[in-house]
């Protein structure tokens, strides 16, 4: 229904952002709302998906169109609902997920909350051959990419920690990877969050 919405990011909560358009504040649920942290008070384009069922209507939003497409494909998998789909999109890059599907990597897929072996096999069955294009169109994440400033200096680390807490990880779990995160040279808060999720899922 809505391909995307452009507006001002006015507020960020643990599960959603508020995007104001012409005096109307849209509550948009996101995989990781803190990815919009640097855009608070600024205009942003959010790729949206309007989810409608008899008992609920929800507006979901994504920074990248590929993430929205992945979310939509996941909803077509038996046993995957919006909550599971949003969690998967928030904890994996599109490239890594597509790679896991094409290589039938059950171990990677079962690391996501609420995904057991049966659901992982169902995802592979339903999505294999339908996500391979993302492996060529979406660039592979490069952990060795050097940024001009470290997370500790730029504030990315602190924002990433808050994002990980919002995703349900305890302070003790985050403390266990803090040294690795502080030395990781990401280009944005999102980079550091995804690195943290990779470390926490090991």
Report on this model:
With 202 residues, the chain is α+β, with helices and mostly antiparallel strands. Helix content is 43%, strand content 19%. A five-stranded antiparallel beta sheet has the order 3-2-1-4-5, with helices on one face. The N and C termini lie far apart (38 Å).
Rg value: 17 Å
The name of the CATH topology of the largest domain is: DNA polymerase, domain 1
The end-to-end span amounts to 38 Å
Number of domains: 3
What is the helix tally?
A: 11
Number of strands: 5
User: Helical content, roughly?
Assistant: 40-55%
Shape descriptor = globular
Sequence of strands across the biggest β-sheet? 3-2-1-4-5
Which parts are unreliable, with pLDDT below 50 for 5 consecutive residues or more? Answer: 141-153
Into which percentage range does the β-strand content fall?
15-25%
Please identify the top-level CATH class of the largest domain.
Answer: Mainly Alpha
Q: At CATH's second level, what is the architecture of the largest domain?
A: Orthogonal Bundle
């Amino acid at each position: 229904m809505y391909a995307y919405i452009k507006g001002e990011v006015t507020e960020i909560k643990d599960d959603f952002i508020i995007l104001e358009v012409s005096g109307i504040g849209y509550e948009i649920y996101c995989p990781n709302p803190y990815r919009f942290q640097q855009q608070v008070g600024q205009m942003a384009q959010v790729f949206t998906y309007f989810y409608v069922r008899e008992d609920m209507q929800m507006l979901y939003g994504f920074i990248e169109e590929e993430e929205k497409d992945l979310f939509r494909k996941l909803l077509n998998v038996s046993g995957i609902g919006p909550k599971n789909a949003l969690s998967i999109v928030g904890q994996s890059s599109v490239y890594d997920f597509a790679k896991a599907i094409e290589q039938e990597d059950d171990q990677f897929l079962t690391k996501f909350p609420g995904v057991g072996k049966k659901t992982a096999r169902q995802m592979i069955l339903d999505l294999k051959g339908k996500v391979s294009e993302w492996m060529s169109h979406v660039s592979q994440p490069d952990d060795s990419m050097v940024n001009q400033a470290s997370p500790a200096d730029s504030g990315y680390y602190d924002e990433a920690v808050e994002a990980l807490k919002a995703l349900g990880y305890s302070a003790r779990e985050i403390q266990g990877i803090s040294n690795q995160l502080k030395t990781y040279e990401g280009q944005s808060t999102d980079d550091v969050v995804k690195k943290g999720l990779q470390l926490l899922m090991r």
